[in-house]
């Protein structure tokens, strides 16, 4: 299939070209009937999804709706049972290696090593991504500055707050300058100041580097403030999709995203946890921010 460029943007001073399919010039993520079964359980059921370039797209839904399973398929960590998807112009099944080269992924679980410094974590990531040795120091320094971590680069990550850890993980995922960034619950457990610091970095990436970002979240304020478009999943399917304003307007002039969530998912929003559980659930309440 032929490819063509949709545009050029700079990130850390380097020009990057975003590539999508010629047949879908305004689509960076596209799924068609994407399905994942676990024995008799259908976790994701014939999902049709489109995400445009330089877009922050949010997946909402109760626990078990299929959000994380969807991200795992789109990042090639889990093969689909049926259907197809393309990410950054590449087929997730037939071109998984190319997909991985063009994406960044930050899961709920902590991916930074607490026994290393931030700089050491980034150096390890640079090696794993195959970044040329001559470029590593500049990229690491630039990433630390961009994420506001330059002054703490030599400190062990286990001494970091939750907000600092999350920003470091974003830096790790962005070292190879991906076209698409996947974030699973990017700010869960963070205090309001740390949460907004992450939002600011994500908005800057979308605006200045034309990075497309797909996030899952239970935070309705985050979805309302940060996302350009939302898809609300329920039992593996998309129950509603649109901009935050469109979804709220569909329920009435005074509706909130909490109302939208309850209407389409038939469930309440669940979140919680503590810092000791951050490695398992990312739901930290202590030492964050």
- CATH class designation: Alpha Beta
Provide the spatial order of strands within the biggest beta sheet. Answer: 8-9-10-5-11-12
CATH topology group:
Rossmann fold
Portion in helices: 25-40%
**What would the principal axes of the Cα set say about the shape?**
globular
Number of strands: 12
The total tally of domains equals: 1
State the major sheet: 6 strands, mixed
CATH architecture: 3-Layer(aba) Sandwich
- Helical/strand content category: alpha/beta
Radius of gyration: 18 Å
Strand content: 25-35%
N/C terminus separation:
46 Å
Instruction: Give the low-confidence spans.
Output: 1-23, 268-289
SSE pattern: EEEEEHEEHEHHHEHEHEEHH
| Average pLDDT taken over every residue | 85
Number of helices: 9
Write out the CATH superfamily name.
Answer: P-loop containing nucleotide triphosphate hydrolases
Write the layout of secondary structure elements.
Layout: E1 3-11, E2 14-21, E3 29-38, E4 41-51, E5 56-60, H1 67-74, E6 82-87, E7 90-91, H2 96-101, E8 103-106, H3 118-128, H4 133-146, H5 162-174, E9 180-184, H6 192-209, E10 212-216, H7 220-226, E11 229-234, E12 237-242, H8 244-249, H9 257-265
Parallel strand pairs: 5-10, 5-11, 8-9, 9-10
Antiparallel strand pairs: 1-2, 3-4, 3-6, 6-7, 11-12
């Amino acid at each position: 299939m032929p490819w063509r460029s949709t545009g050029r943007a700079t990130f850390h001073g380097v020009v990057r070209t975003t590539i999508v399919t010629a047949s879908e010039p305004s689509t960076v993520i596209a799924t068609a009937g994407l399905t994942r079964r676990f024995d008799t359980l259908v976790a994701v059921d014939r999902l049709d999804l489109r995400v445009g370039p330089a877009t922050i797209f949010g997946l909402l839904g109760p626990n078990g709706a299929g959000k994380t399973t969807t991200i795992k398929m789109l990042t090639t960590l889990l093969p689909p049972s049926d259907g197809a998807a393309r990410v950054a112009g590449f087929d997730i099944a037939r071109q998984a290696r190319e997909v991985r080269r063009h994406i960044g992924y930050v899961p709920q679980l902590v991916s930074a090593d607490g026994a290393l410094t931030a700089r050491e974590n980034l150096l390890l990531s640079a090696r794993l991504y195959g970044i040329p040795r001559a470029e590593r120091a500049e990229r690491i320094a630039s990433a630390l500055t961009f994420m506001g971590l330059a002054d703490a680069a030599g400190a062990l990550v286990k001494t970091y707050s939750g907000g600092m850890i999350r920003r470091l993980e974003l830096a790790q995922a962005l070292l190879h300058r991906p076209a698409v960034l996947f974030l699973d619950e990017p700010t869960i457990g963070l205090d309001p100041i740390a949460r907004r610091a992450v939002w600011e970095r994500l908005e800057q990436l979308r605006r200045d580097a034309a990075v497309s970002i797909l996030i899952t979240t239970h935070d309705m304020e985050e979805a309302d403030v940060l996302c350009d478009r939302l898809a609300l999943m329920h039992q593996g399917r998309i129950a509603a999709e649109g901009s935050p304003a469109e979804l709220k307007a569909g329920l009435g002039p005074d509706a909130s995203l909490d109302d939208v969530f309850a209407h389409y998912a038939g469930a309440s929003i669940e979140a919680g946890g503590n810092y000791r559980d951050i490695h398992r659930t990312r739901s930290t309440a202590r030492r964050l921010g």
